[in-house]
Amino acid sequence: MDSAALKLVRLLLVVACAILLWTAAGCFADGESKAKQDRTKSDDANVLEIVLSDLLARPHSPVESIRSPQDAKEPATPQLLFSTEPPAGKIEGGEVFPRGGGGALAEDFANEWEHLSAREQAGAKVAADDLARRARNKDGFKTFVPKNKRITMFTKEAEAKQREIDARTKGFGGLGPQVFRAFAPGYSADRRVAVVFLSFGWSIHSAQAIYILVRRDDHWSVVVRNLVFFL
After folding, report:
1. Contact of 213 with 127, CB cutoff 8 Å
2. CB environment 6-38: b (16+ within 10 A), e (fewer)
3. Which residues pair with 230 in a beta bridge?
4. pTM of the prediction?
5. What's the mean pLDDT in 181-205?
């Protein structure tokens, strides 16, 4: 084989190696991205399940009680209706932690906030900014299958239909059922802290709930909760 042919073979081998490396890098990046998406989806579902179950379990739960249509004799029990439609409007990280610090959370729930480590407090603020980023990017819940039987998924169509029924039968202007909505959770850089923001109807008014959760020993736990009722 002459020198020209040998150079051509070497060049082809270099090009082939470069293509293989580029393809492998792309496959690795795709796999890494898919793994990150799967982890976020799993964390979203776990965090949301814990928050909604906490709302149901509170001694003075804001969740309205609903009587089962199958058995009208049974007492009404709290039943949480959740929609994957995000809350109306926009949110910024500073709205979760106003005035540049712990804000209302640090003032109203000083004991819970102070039990967080400095790293967890800093992580909560990063998570609040991440929540706002996901809201801006419309990175919300695609699907959510609750494990708690007292959490019921409620579609936009079902809500509109219920409003029409209430307007005809209850005569209070079609306020509709109490539906809970949430922005997708925000996470700290190390994914050890999560922040959840929900909105829901309360009587003829509205309310909001802000939760901070911390992952310890691979389990999420509620460490701070802040419920605000607007009159």
Report:
1. no
2. eeeeeeeeeeeeeeeeeeeeeeeeeeeeeeeee
3. 206
4. 0.74
5. 90
